């Protein structure tokens, strides 16, 4: 009697090997890693950059410094996203366990704290 369990595989194109058979669970893991690396940092950067552009276009000159801080914050987060992606290596390699990069989290926290302090000072001075 043959009691083999058949597993459904999806063909994932675009990988270095041109094709990769992965299970549904592995596909979920790949998607989670993609959201973390390409999603979170890029979304944050684009939202901050967009907010800065809205402030620069809609408000008076007294708000320009606030808009510039948002634009600078967005560009900095975008730079962090690019550098983190390059430093991470192959995050889609299933043989390596996923680890949060503590260094990049600390840098992002520091940049965000500085931006918020500068924004608070600028708002109080209005």
TrEMBL record:
Keyword Transmembrane helix belongs to the record: yes
Keywords annotated in UniProt: Membrane, Transmembrane, Transmembrane helix
TM spans (from-to): 63-83, 103-124
Protein name: DUF202 domain-containing protein
Organism field: Podila minutissima
